[in-house]
Amino acid sequence: MQMSGDPEFHEGLGFVISGQSQFNTGALGMERHMHLGAVAFEDTQEGNDMLNFQAQALFMILMGHGWKPGGFAKRPLQIKIVGNPDDPENCALSLWKRLEPTRKHLRQLEEQFRAEHKKDPELMAAKLFEIVVIDAPQKKEEE
Q1: Is pTM beyond 0.85 here?
Q2: Strand 14-18 relative to strand 34-37: parallel, antiparallel, unpaired?
Q3: With CB atoms counted within 10 Å of each terminal CB, which end of the chain scores lower, N or C?
Q4: How far apart are CA 8 and CA 57, in angstroms?
């Protein structure tokens, strides 16, 4: 995969996919991140196709700024899937299932990376993505 940005600049440190209508990504304490609100996509074939299309497009943008030896190989891309335990369609387990095509895409990217760096044992062992799947109660609005 060809890198498009400055080879020493690693923009994509974090990515959040949330199942909440309001979500403060800054509360996660990541230096930089992108956010995709899964709650905007219905849990239908069409909605899930669009959710996965958007997620994969954003991953490719992030990787254009860090996909190189020394990029994600030394500092994995943080992926947080944050579900809403009060919404069965958007709880962490449901989001995890809905994102199966994206998870497959990430596995393929790791395989591609390893194939491109098979002569370097350190890069072959690199963990490119650090994925956390959690439910987090949505903060109730003040009445």
Answers
A1: no
A2: parallel
A3: C
A4: 22
